[in-house]
Amino acid sequence: MVPPKSYYACQSCGHQSAKWLGRCPECGTWNSLVEETALAPRRQGWEGLPSAAKAQPLVKVEQAKKSAIQIGISELDRALGGGIVPGGVTLVGGDPGIGKSTLLLQALAGLSEREGIIALYVSGEESVTQTKLRADRLGLSPVNLYVLAETNLEAIFAQVDKVKPKVMVIDSVQTIYSSALDSPPGSISQVRETTARIIQLAKLATISTFLIGHVTKDGSLAGPRALEHLVDTVLYFEGEPGSSYRILRVAKNRFGPTDEIGVFEMGEAGLVCVADPSLLFLSERAANVPGSAVVPVLKGTRPVLLEIQALASSAAFGMPRRTALGVDANRVSMIMAVLDRRVGLNLAGTDLFVNVAGGVRIDEPAADLGIAAALASSLRNKPVEGGTVTFGEVGLTGEIRAIRRAELRIREAVKLGFTRCVLPVANEKEVGKLSDAQLVGARTLAQALEICLA
To answer: How would you class 129 by CB atoms within 10 Å of its CB: exposed for 0-12, middle for 13-18, buried for 19 or more?
Structure first.
């Protein structure tokens, strides 16, 4: 019998090499190549699963009777695009102890109680007793929720065939191993093999599946990036150290928007949804302080008000520092160049820092005017007038360009007590006059800053 061939695989990116290397040539990680055995080719389908599928005309495919099932946790339903899809696979990542297992245990309990759905929670890191202790602490006692402490993939499939769940959680995918491979659990070969087989099971048996994944030191999901391409949805669970608030960020979603967020608060009874994130992010904002501006941004279908902070100080060394957190550093550099060239603000010899309070990231150009207003406010040591929000895209010639869904942003600002909005002229004409807000249109960045800092 010919022994199976082996290779060296990077445990960070999945790069394969015929020989051992001290540093991965693909991602640059040191001491990450581990010897693994090549998987023998399969002539048939996965064990226990049908291998044949027939092609059929698209017009004859029966439409699903119910596209999405609401979990009952509003912020999680929002992040998933309305709920779970039968057969959909969701990959959830986050730092240890952030609340991934707690959130999904609450989700399964809610589904089994409200919808009567049979759910299966597979724990590869905790015993059944430990999972029961967590459920008791959260006050959960669902009848249709089954718990399994197992790491062998074939044993898990046997229990799935016996229980026949409609929703399943694998906690975590790095602990599951297949007997068909000699590689240890958590290796690239095992993660890739087990994930592919779980996904095929979910599609064929229409089981909505959540996979909990470990994260690396830089916060990205551990294992090859191919896992993110295999699954339908990728969620990142984030939180600031020492804070009880958690943010569920969507990185990929085949069934909904990809820029949605869910906000939770960790309490004694588990994770609780935050109904008004805008109020949360602005709760600690200091009034009449230079270097602060409020911008309404869209996270999926929901407008959220965020505070952009800027700080200008004299450079201690010859090269000024430019630091941006929560926003694209290249876009901030562009706005600084426009401020220097078109507005006449002297930025040479000044350290400039930009931050989005609350740990949320802004990815749309609507925040350009707010970034510029915060920078100008700090440079001139003059606060933005109270009760003012601002939004608009800044062009290289200094013009203020219109952005989408302006009325929705304005209504969110009015709901939180803001009385004035500085916005592009095109959006002012489009929205018209709102009874509860004063709209001030601006054509250029210089004109908008004069209004904000008047």
So the answer is: exposed
Six-digit token string for 159: 């229990």
The closest alpha carbon to 369, from 447, 428, 316, belongs to 447
Q: Of 404, 403, 377, which Cα lies nearest the Cα of 388?
A: 377
Phi and psi for 414 in degrees, rounded to 5?
Answer: -65, -35
The pLDDT value given to residue 1? 43
| Residue 444: closest CA among 389, 393, 371 | 393
Length of the chain: 454
**Ramachandran area for residue 185 (φ above 0: left; ψ -120 to 50: alpha; else beta):** beta
* Of the candidates 42, 15, 41, the residue with the CA atom closest to the CA atom of residue 29: 15
Q: What's the whole-model pTM score?
A: 0.79
Phi, psi for 223 (deg, rounded to 5):
100, 180
CA-to-CA distance for 129 and 93, rounded, in angstroms?
Answer: 24
Question: In sequence order, which residues have a C-beta less than 8 Å from that of residue 277 and are 6 or more positions away?
Answer: 261, 263, 302, 304
Nearest to 36 by CA among 188, 186, 177, 179: 188
**Strand boundaries in 161-203, DSSP class E:** 167-171
From CA 353, how far away is CA 335, in angstroms rounded? Answer: 13
Mind listing the pLDDT tens digit for each residue in 211-235?
998 876 665 666 556 688 889 999 9
Q: What one-character-per-residue DSSP string does 40-62 give? A: PPPSS--TTS--------GGGSP
pLDDT tens digits, 36-87: 776 554 444 445 555 556 788 988 877 766 578 899 999 999 999 889 999 9
Q: Which of 319, 432, 422, 425 is nearest to 376 (CA)?
A: 422
End-to-end CA separation in angstroms for the chain: 84
Return the SS3 of 192. helix
